[in-house]
Amino acid sequence: MAETLDKLSMYLQLPFVQRALIVGVVIALCSSLLGVTLVLKRFSFIGDGLSHVAFGAMAIAAVLKLTNDMPFVLAVTVICAVLLLRMGQNAKIKGDAAVAMISVGALAIGYLLMNIFSTSGNLSGDVCTTLFGSTSILTLTEEEVWLSVGLSALVILVFIFFYHKIFCITFDENFALATGVRAKLYNLILAVVIAVIIVLAMNLVGSLLISALIIFPALSAMRVFKSFKSVTICSAILSVCCAALGMLISIAFGTPVGSTIVAVDIVTFFIFMLIGKIFGGIKQ
Amino acid sequence: MPQIICKDLCLGYQGQEIIHNLNFEVNKGDYLCIVGENGSGKSTLMRTLLGLQPPISGNILTGDGMTKRSIGYLPQQTVTQRDFPSTVWEIVLSGCQNQCGLRPFYAKAEKQKALSNIERMGLTKLKKRCYRELSGGQQQRVLLARALCAAQDILLLDEPVAGLDPVVTEEMYRIIEELNQKDGMTIIMISHDIEAAVKYAGKILHIADHVFFGTTDEYIKSGRSRFLTKEAEVNG
Going by fewer Cβ within 10 Å, which terminus of chain B is more open, N or C? Predict the structure, then answer.
C-alpha cells in the first residue's frame, strides 16, 4: 500500500499528469451537467450516436494528416448534432433509426478509413485509443489543454445562463412552444453544447464510453434527490469525484483511464440506488 | 372582437385531412367545450390552436390583444414527467418562462406570481415536494398553476380530468369554473365527458361528420348530446 502511495505521489508531481487531472475533472464536470436533460428528454441515444460520429471525424482527420484534429472533429460533430435534432422532428425517418444509421455508419467508415490510409505501425492501438481513450488524456498538448479548459468553461457558462430555459424545455417542450418560449432555439443550443461535450469527453474516456460519463452521474443523483436543482448539483459533484478517483486509481494501478472512471461511476450508481431504496422505503 | 376566429379550417397530419371546413369563434370569457369521439381530431385542433402544427388550409385569426404569451395550456401528462425529479415550485415557476425572453433568471414579480398561483391552487404545503410523489389530482393542480403563470386571459385544457377519481374530478371542474366566472378567463377544454360539458360549458363544439357549434342550450335541443351519451353507455 505504501509503495502504491509513493508511486502515486511521484506521478502527481509530473506536470503532464497534473494537467491531465485538471482537464479530466473539468471535462467530467461539464459532461455531467446535461446528463439529467439527456436522460429525461430521451436524448441519451443521441449522445451515443454523436460519439460515434466524433470517432469517424477523428479517422478522417487522421487520414488528412491534420496535426490538430480537435477543431475539425468539433465542427463535424456539431453539424451532425444539429442534423440529428432536425431529423428527430422529421417524421419520415424516425429519430432513433436516424441516430442508429448515422452512428454505426460513422463507426464503420471511420475504421475503414483508418485501415486503408493508416500510416502508423500500430493500427489497433490507435483504434483502441480513440474508442476507449486509454492514454490520450496524458498526451494532450498544451494547446489542447487550453482548448479543453476554455470549451469547458464555455459549456458551464452556457448551462448556467440557460439553466431555467433548459428546465422548461426538458420538463414540457410542447407547453414551452405553445406559450411562446423559443424552445427550438434552446434545443439547438442544447444540441451544440452536447456536441462540444462529446468532443471534449472523447479525450478523457474515448468515444465508446462517453455516454457513460454523461448519464451515470445523472442517473445516480436521480435515485436520491428530488428537485431538478439538487439532482444537477449532485450529479456534477459525483461526476467530478468519480473522475478524480478513477484517474488516481488508474495512475496507481496502471489501469486504462476511461474504463476505470466508468467503473467508479457504476459502483457509485449502485451505492446511490441502495441509498434511494433505503430512504424511499422509510418514507413509504 | 372575438379572441379567436377559425375560418374554413382543415386540419390533419401529413396532408391527411381529419377535420374539414371548421368554423367557430371564441369570445372573451367564453367557456367552450370541444367534444367528439376518439380520433375525431380534438387534440389536433388543440395543437393547431396552440401553434404546434400548421393547419392544412384555412385561417386562425386572433384578436382582442391575443398573443402566444396570453395562452395558458394544460397538456395531458407525458411519460417523461412521471419520473421527472423536480419540485412543485420549480415546475410552477417554469410557467413564467415565456415572460423571460433571454433573461437567464426569474424576476421578483414572476416568483411572486408563481407563489400566488401555488396558493390559489391550494398547493402551498406541497411547494417543496417532488412532483412524481404527488397524487394525480395534485399533479393536475400543479400543471394548472403553471398554466396560470403563463396565461393572461385564455386557458386551453386537454382532458384535464383524465384518470382522476370522481371526487377529484368534481374538484377540478369547480376550479376551472371559478377561473372562468371569477377571473373572467376564457376556457377552451377538450373533454370526453359530455355530461360535464353540458353542465359547465357555455358553448359546445362537437366534432364529427356533422360539426356542431353553438351554445349549450342549442346543443341539448339538437339532441346530439343524448345520442352521444347513449352511445357511450353502449360502448362502456
Answer: C
Chain A with chain B: Cβ pairs closer than 8 A = 98
Helix (H) or strand (E) holding A10: helix A2-12
pTM, entire model: 0.86
Tell me: pLDDT of B83 over 80: no
Q: Does residue B69 sit at the A interface (CB-CB below 8 Å)?
A: yes
Fold observed for domain A2-276: ABC transporter involved in vitamin B12 uptake, BtuC (1.10.3470)
Within 8 A of B104 by CB-CB distance, chain A residues are 160-165
Judge whether B31 and B156 are in contact, CB under 8 Å.
Answer: no
In which residue are the cell numbers 417532488 written?
B130
Question: B156 to chain A: nearest residue by CA?
Answer: A178
Residues 6+ apart with CB under 8 A from B87: A226, A227, A228, B127, B128, B129, B130, B131
Contact: B71, A180; criterion CB under 8 Å: yes
Map out the domains of chain B with their CATH numbers.
1-66+153-236 (3.40.50.300), 76-152 (no CATH)
Q: Which of B14, B67, B94 sits opposite A168 (nearest CB)?
A: B94
**Sign for the pseudo-dihedral over CA of B154, B159, B163, B165:** positive
Which of A172, A228, A234, A282 should we substitute to test contact with B (largest number of B Cβ atoms within 10 Å)? A172
- State the DSSP code for A137: G
B231 pLDDT more than 80: no
Alpha carbon separation from A71 to A34, A75, A77, A195, B193 (Å, rounded): 22, 6, 10, 12, 58
The letter for the amino acid at B18 is I
- In this prediction, residue A18 has a pLDDT band, given cuts at 50, 70 and 90, of confident
Nearest CA to CA, how far is B67 from chain A (Å)? Answer: 9
ipTM of the complex: 0.86
Closest B-chain CA to A232: B85
Mean pLDDT value across residues A250-267 = 90
